[in-house]
Amino acid sequence: MHILNTEVLGFMVKPEDYESLDHTAQDFLNIKLDNLVDHPPILYSQYISRPPPVKNTLGLDAVFMIGLVRRPERRNRMILSLDELNFNYTLFDAVDGRQLNQSYLDSLGIKYLPGWKNPWGERPMTFGEVGCFLSHHTIWQQMMTEGLDQILILEDDVVFEPYFRHDLTRVLEESNRITPNWDLMGWSSSLGL
Q: What residue numbers bound the domain in which 170 lies?
């Protein structure tokens, strides 16, 4: 981390005696990830050497990050965040709802299921929501074609909760132990991830 002594950039809390160095490092990583939401990235000093990060997928077959091409600031924040989290991932250009129209959806044979109602009120589904679904659907098709068993799909507006990698690893291990043939899991910050 490059720190200037001419301005206050924030404070680092002294670790408690019971905290491990790894716990303190995770706290610092969370500060960096939170910072990426509203500020430019904290760059590493060229004068400090550090070992190259070991990137992985946490045992999953693949990690995909869906990002809108027209939203480069969100895409760049996610790239920086996933790099900080040491994820090996694949960027996927989202289907942009602004590029969709009803005749195109009709040509694909996409229509509402009979009896479908929007759970958030009496309104039609937006083209943005349809684009989001089509992005996920395309990745699911790729998953089937390539014979991938377990993948993680992240969207470009995700905000990582503290200890995301640790919690995700724990949830995957527990899920695979309890229900080894699970099909689909969804996470939100209300679930702790």
A: 161-193
